[in-house]
Amino acid sequence: MSGRGLHVGLNLIFLVPGESGGMEIAARELIPALVAAAPEVRFTAFINREAAAAADGPWGQLLAAVTVPVRASNRLEWVRGEQALLPVAARRAGVDVLHSLASTAPGWGRFARVTTIYDLIYRRFPDAHAGILDLGMRVLVPLAARRSRRLIVSSASTRRDLVELLGIDERRIDLVPLGVARVGGAGGPVSAAGAEALDEAQTRARFDLGERRVLLSLSAKRPHKNLAALLGALAMIEAERRPVLVLAGYHTDYEAELRERARSLGLEDDVRFEGWLSASEVEGLWALTEAFVFPSLYEGFGLPVLEAMARGVAVACADASSLPEVAGEAAILFDPGDERAIAAAITRLLEDPRERERLRVAGRAQAARFTWERAAQGTLASYRRALGAP
Prior knowledge:
The strands form two sheets. The protein has a seven-stranded parallel sheet with strand order 3-2-1-4-5-6-7, with helices on both faces. A six-stranded parallel sheet has the order 10-9-8-11-12-13, with helices on both faces. Strand 2, helix 2 (49-54) and strand 3 form a beta-alpha-beta unit. The chain has helices spanning 21-37, 49-54, 75-93, 121-124, 131-147, 156-166, 200-206, 227-235, 255-264, 279-288, 303-310, 323-327, 339-351, 353-367, 372-386; strands spanning 7-11, 42-47, 64-67, 97-100, 112-116, 150-153, 173-175, 214-218, 244-248, 271-274, 291-294, 315-318, 332-334. The chain has 15 helices and 13 strands. By secondary structure, it is of the alpha/beta class. It is globular and about 65 Å long.
């Protein structure tokens, strides 16, 4: 490293655009912040074929990108790319530090390893991942934890899990909360990605909302997200007072069960099942929704809670895992195992305008505490620690 400056490789082999959930959002936001915070550092992104074909990320634009010849939508290829091909590519590129941004990392390589571990959901909720993915997590996450010089976590909750479940020395763990992108502008509502939001009429037409009040939840359709309980809570609200619930987030096989539950509860006209949405569509929903509800049983961080708060949307979320850390005093917390408690929180948000306004103000203040600039500085400090620097 002497005489040529620090060279950091970013392991993005996991990232399939539109299919990688919160980890994708975090990567897209953190990378520009890192580049801005450390112009003296050379960054190289290692990406898969899907990300290379999409050509819509900061990789290849703000920093050099090396394509590892695998398709990460195939889990076996992803593992092969990360464990066999990436160490060779990183060595050829001459990186000093390899930062893996999605809980797994190569088990070998002559470079310092830093790994961001978002959660240990495979231990807390084994059904969250199916088949080979679950097996892979049980092998690869502990491998990354053992072989990395530093581990980055976004919440104290995940730090506790690493200590308790994997026996990691807490002194090797750096707590670096995620950030939330700034939104808004003089010209009207603007998304974090810079796209102009759909206006209210466009949004209502796009999602067939009519003139109804809107409740929003952004979440992958996976069992631990507790969306079945949210549907049960929605059904407890009288039909004439019931809002329309928009469930947006990438599709999974579990969605079929959720759709059947909605049908069995008589909610066919009250729920919109949506997949991964464009920035303009999401911002259009943020602008008209009256409340955001997040019933997840387990989150490494819970970024959607902050995204709602940053936009002045009142939030109700589960009193579980990392969510109380993120929400602070700026959300209504509920027992995620109690559908009546969820229904009561929703009703309170929708029918108490003073409480809704209080949470909007408190939420903006809470979200302002979490910035990607701070996340970048914390990440750079972890790189220095990995190399033995103060």
